[in-house]
Every structure is written in structure tokens, then in C-alpha cells.
Amino acid sequence: MIRLLLASVFLACAASLPARADTRDVYTVRNIEVDEQAASVIEAREKAMSVARQKAARLLLTKITLSDDRASAGGLPVDYALAERLSAAVDVQEETAGAGRYRGVLSVVLNPLMVRAHLDSIGVPYVDTQGPKSLIVPLASNYQAQEDWRQALGAGNANALAPYVTAANPGYTAFSDWSVFSTEAATVGARRGVLAEVEGRNGAYRTTLSTVTAAGTELLGTTNYATTLKGAADAAAEFLDEDWKRRSIIRGGTRTTTSASVRYTSLAEWNTLRSALARSPLVSDFKITAIARDGALVTFAYAGDEPRLQNDLLQRGVSLAEAPDAKGLVLRSAVSAAARQ
């Protein structure tokens, strides 16, 4: 009876979790500066709103697509009419108006359904689900350079496709592993670490980026040179976004339907595992077929091959392996799996 009651609690909690990551952060474009003049303040304000919608639509389409795909499509032009159709709302962050002039900083929320329909209609693949949040670790040649780099990275970036929070602990090194990061990562909800080692001097900075999970450290690559530390921070964020898009964009093809056993030791661990599957852009038709205190049976379909799915889930803290009897897959916390090795 107790086992059945616990299973019911698990199912109730599972049903309350979102099936997909909240897309509002992805579809909100902030800090758009406008400065427009017209015969009246009202006309200037309307003109500024239109300009902001157009800028936001262009930025979002660039954000969720790859440059190669945009080039193959002949570019993604956005006129005022299309921007109006793709936009859902405009919010004012700051504004000054008077004498037929409107100046401000605006935020625009785009409509996910309209944006997806537009890209689908012109055959441009995209990804608009966020990757796992990262704890980005600033590294430099000395303490002062490292603190300057931390300031340039800022507190974090929640709106990126690859969102991150900047580590506050200055004691990490290029050799720190997941066990060293995990405590701070847990406090900010990060599923992986990203080592961001900047080098160079004023006028020429570049950053080498590596991901750190319970499975180990993986080199991602090095950004192009930037003239300032702030430019280097922007380049690092863009690099992480591009890496996420290349790993996650689905270009048609078949989907594989599979069953899996999910092993966990607590409700929190189950929620993490289920959320990782639900949020993966490679996964669809996720269903729970049975559940108990320490495990569940699920079915889902995934795009691409199994190694690609394995890598995607590992970035989210989930270990994926073949079942010992070769019937389906086994999913468990990557941290738990590493601890057993």
C-alpha cells in the first residue's frame, strides 16, 4: 500500500512538471535602443515600436538558426509587416519623449508559433529550446585579470540559447573537475561547468572554452579575437550558442522509438532525469508507462543517432547506456553513475 502511495506521489509530481522548457527567455529580446522623430510624440513612439519589432525579429531569427542555413536560404530578410506578424508584445524599459522625439530602451516578445511557422515555410531549420544552464568559470593568467574577466562576463545570461551563471568562487582552476564545481552549480541550478580561459591583451582577446560534467572535461574550441574583454565575453556567449545549435538542430530524417528504464534514488533525482528528457530538442512523445519508488519505465522517440542523444543528455547530468539484457536503455544521474565507477 505504501509503495502504491509513493508511486502516486511520483506521478502527481511528474504531471506538474513542464513538458518543454519555458521558451519566454528565448523569445524575449531586451535592451533594444530606439531614437525616432515624427510630427508628434505619438507618431514617433509608434515608429520606435515598429523599429524595435524589426530589430528584435532579426536578432531572434539569427539567434535560433545557423549562419550556414541562413546563407543557403538567401538570408532571412525582415520587413515591417513580417516583424509585426512575428511580434507578440513590446515592453518599455526606459523612455524619454517630447517635441516629436521618442527615445527609449525596449523589450520585444516574439510569438513562438508565428516564428516557427515562418521558418518552417521557408525550410530553415532552427532550435528554440535552451540548453542546460552552465556555471561558467572565468580563468586568466593572474588574479586581477581573472576578476576583470569575471566582471566582463557579468552575473550571467538567462536569455541565451546556452544560458549560464558566472561562478562567484575565485578558487577554481583549469584542472578543476565536476566534483569541485558541483556545490556551487547546484545552488544556481547549473547542470554543467564551462571553463572560459581568456588570453591576450587589450585589443586582442580570445577565449578557450571547455565543458565539465560528471563524465569528464570536453574541449569545445576557441573564439575569434575580440578587441575588448566585453567583446570577448560576447564572443564566448555566441560560441556557446552556436555549439548548442549545431548539436541540437534536427534536419528531418527518421525518429527512433525506444523504451528505457529510469533509475533514481530520490524524488529530486527523478525530477532531474525526467526534466532532462522533456527538455531535450531531440526527444518527442515522452511517456511514463510505469513508476515506483526507485525506478520508472518510459518510452520516447529521438532524432539522430544514439551517441548524439547520449551527449545531449550528458550535458544535462544524465547517463544513458544500453540495458544489460539489450532490451531498451537505462538512464540514471551521471553523478550517481560516476560515483559507482
Quick one: overall form?
A: globular
Instruction: Give start-end ranges of low-pLDDT stretches.
Output: 1-21
Which architecture of the largest domain does the CATH hierarchy give at level 2?
Answer: 2-Layer Sandwich
Helical stretch tally: 12
The H/E string reads HHEHHHEEHEHEEHEEEHEHEEHEEH
Class derived from helix and strand content: alpha+beta
Assembly state of the chains shown? single chain
* Major β-sheet strand ordering: 5-6-4-7-8-9
How far is it from the N-terminal to the C-terminal residue, by CA?
Answer: 35 Å
Q: What is the CATH class of the largest domain?
A: Alpha Beta
- Rg, please? 22 Å
Q: Roughly what percent helix? A: 40-55%
- Count of individual beta strands: 14
Counted up, domains total 3
Largest sheet: 6 strands, mixed
Beta-strand content bin: 25-35%
What's the mean pLDDT score? 87
Classify the fold: give the CATH topology of the largest domain: Double Stranded RNA Binding Domain
